[in-house]
Amino acid sequence: MFTEERYNIILQELNSKGIIAVADLVKILNASESTIRRDLNILHNKGLLKKIHGGAILNGERASKHDYMVNIRKSLNINEKFEIAKYAASLIKNGDMIYLDAGTTTGELIEFIKEREITVVTNAIVHAKKLLEKNIKTFILGGELKATTEAVVGPITVEDLKKYNFSKGFFGTNGISNEKGYTTPDVNEAMVKAEAIKRCNEAFILADESKLEQVSFITFGEIKDAVIITNKINIKYDTNVIEVNKND
After folding, report:
1. What CATH number has the domain spanning 3-59?
2. How far apart are CA 78 and CA 55, in angstroms?
3. Chain-centroid distance, C-alpha 41
4. What are the structural domain ranges in the chain?
5. CA 185 to CA 63: how far, in whole Å?
6. What is the pLDDT of residues 173-191, one digit of tens each?
7. Pick from 20, 29, 22: which is nearest to 1 by CA?
8. What DSSP string describes the chain?
9. In this protein, which residues make up the domain named HTH deoR-type (predicted)?
């Protein structure tokens, strides 16, 4: 198979699925792993896709519109998420009533929580388990369990949220922009995020630089509704922004 043919097939698979693994491309193209990795490097350098550990995803705005499985999202921007989560956890104090949104970066935050005299409400099954393992008082919201993000979502979840008031909330997002605010692909998840963010005295959006200046399908909050914690920023946002790095 000619090189250009491989490129076309790789991009077709990516446009169809949003993400593709090297192992799958080896089978589809009947090519060696080294050939596939070389192809992905070239397409990445051309700006046609974004390489990740073990494969590739759509780049730019198209990526923000996809709701990737949790195991996929965990492989993206690992070091950046680590630093963001570590800083976010340092903001938690004993006595806090915390809302912890579903997401991979918010999940990383749990590892860095030092305080035990706090209460956490979450819509993530995995988060709840990790919190209990750290002997942190935990409540999980009721509602529909969404397979891709492992989050509890929907109208029942929104109603459940209305009895709580939070001192701090930590949220994930698929996109951030001054004009469209904080956005996510799924309307049911957006409903939950929107209600939770309204019930927080302080709200923080945990987002690596790949989420900046991206717009997904549904807005769940205006830019002023939260403080952004990110690893690298090159734009002025109409809210407070905390930029973290390994030297912090």
Report:
1. 1.10.10.10
2. 15
3. 24
4. 3-59, 73-243
5. 10
6. 989 999 999 999 889 999 9
7. 29
8. --HHHHHHHHHHHHHHHSEEEHHHHHHHHT--HHHHHHHHHHHHHTTSSEEETTEEE--THHHHT----HHHHTTSSHHHHHHHHHHHHTT--TT-EEEE-SSHHHHHHHTT----S-EEEESBHHHHHHHHHTT-EEEE--SEEETTTTEEESHHHHHHHTT--EEEEEE--SEEETTTEEEES-HHHHHHHHHHHHTEEEEEEE--GGGBT---SEEEE-GGGSEEEES---S--SS-EEE--TT-
9. 3-58
195/13 Cα distance (integer angstroms):
36
Q: Which CATH architecture best describes the domain 73-243?
A: 3-Layer(aba) Sandwich (3.40)
Lookup result for tokens 């000619």: 2
Q: Which two tokens stand for residue 74?
A: 């965990």
pTM over 0.85: no
Phi, psi of 239 (to 5 degrees): -160, 175
Domain 73-243 in the same topology as domain 3-59: no
